[in-house]
Design a protein that fits this description.
By secondary structure, this protein is α/β, with parallel strands linked by helices. The protein is globular, with a radius of gyration of 19 Å. It has a seven-stranded mixed β-sheet with strand order 3-2-4-5-1-6-7, with helices on both faces. It has a single domain, classed as Rossmann fold. Strand 6 and strand 7 form a beta hairpin. The chain starts with 18 loop residues before the first strand and ends with a strand.
């Protein structure tokens, strides 16, 4: 009996994208470095969590938008980031999410408790891992400054730190930006 050749076809698997976390303090250059890391591969989406609720914030958002080329599709999603990734994550080659700490702040302002926030972060990370895109995540590193004077602010700083640790744990790369200079941590 002749030997049969094994089926040489390999199952088609969706390529897993890369997850890159970019951390830094306020005005450290983290968003600019995240854009550089994201690169030119399109289609590209910029998922923005900031809301222009006052004149100064609206000006910040406009400055950020001006730093991106026209081929970025801007998605303004202050709250339902994990739902957006679950629905649209496979449509892009590059997704930049800016930023985690504003998203957390928005969730708290909307009355979301910490346990629900952790569940939403877990859902977000699963959706990001399922995307075939390069996902670049921007977040503030809040734990390197003074200890805040009030319990609410200390609680937010600690929550942001724990969320950053979760993201860094699954990220393929982690960068810290200090005074515009990126330092690769992972």
């Amino acid at each position: 009996m002749p030997l049969r050749k094994p089926n040489s076809r390999k199952p088609v698997r969706k390529a897993r994208g890369r997850i890159v976390l970019v951390l830094g303090g306020a005005a450290s250059g983290k968003s600019e470095n995240a854009l550089r890391i994201a690169g030119p591969r399109g289609p590209r989406a910029f998922v923005a969590t900031g809301q222009g609720l006052d004149e100064e914030m609206a000006m910040r958002i406009a400055r950020h938008r001006a730093t991106r080329s026209a081929d970025w599709e801007t998605v303004e999603e202050p709250l339902e980031v994990e739902a957006w990734f679950a629905k649209h994550g496979l449509q892009y080659r590059t997704i930049l999410f800016d930023c985690v700490t504003l998203w957390l702040s928005n969730l708290i302002e909307a009355g979301t408790n910490e346990a629900a926030i952790h569940m939403r972060v877990e859902a977000l990370l699963k959706s990001m891992q399922a995307a075939s895109a390069r996902v670049v995540i921007v977040s503030n590193e809040l734990g390197m400054g003074l200890v805040p004077a009030d319990a609410c602010t200390r609680g937010f700083r600690d929550l942001a730190g724990r969320v950053n640790q979760l993201i860094a744990g699954i990220a393929d790369e982690v960068h810290l930006v200090v005074t515009g200079i990126p330092i690769r941590l992972k």
